[in-house]
Design goal:
Blueprint lengths: L1 E8 H13 L5 E6 L6 E9 L4 H11 L2 E11 L7 E11 L1 E7 L7
Helix pairs in contact: 1-2
C-alpha cells in the first residue's frame, strides 16, 4: 500500500476530489497555504494499493492543469536597501505536486 499526497490549487481541488471518489478512491482533504505565492492550496491524502498509484496519478494529471498568473515580486530599489519596488512577474501555477510514500502499516478502526 502507498500513501499518495497531492498538493493542488484550490480551484482544481473540488473537481479532483469528485473524480477520485467517482473512481472509488477515498480522499482526505486538507486546506494548506503555499509558501511562494502565499495563496491557498489543497493537500489530498489517499491510501492506495500499489497497482492503483498510476491510475490516481493519471486522474490528477487530467484535472490539474498548469496555467500562468501575473504576481508582483518585491525587488530592492537600486541604491536603497530599505526601499522595495514591485514588478509584475509571470509564473506558472496549477498542476500538482505528488508524493508517493510506502505505508508500513494500515489499520481502519
Amino acid at each position: 500500500m502507498k500513501l499518495v499526497i497531492s498538493i493542488v490549487q484550490d480551484q482544481d481541488a473540488n473537481d479532483l476530489v469528485e473524480a477520485l471518489t467517482d473512481s472509488g478512491y477515498r480522499v482526505t482533504k486538507l486546506a494548506t497555504t503555499g509558501g511562494f505565492l502565499k495563496s491557498g492550496n489543497t493537500t489530498l491524502m489517499m491510501g492506495v494499493d500499489d497497482d492503483k498509484v498510476d491510475n490516481v496519478m493519471d486522474i490528477v494529471e487530467q484535472i490539474c492543469k498548469t496555467r500562468k498568473q501575473v504576481v508582483t515580486s518585491p525587488t530592492p530599489a537600486t541604491g536603497a536597501a530599505s526601499v522595495y519596488m514591485t514588478y509584475p512577474v509571470e509564473v506558472k501555477i496549477g498542476g500538482a505536486t505528488i508524493f508517493v510514500v510506502d505505508v508500513d502499516r494500515f489499520a481502519k478502526i
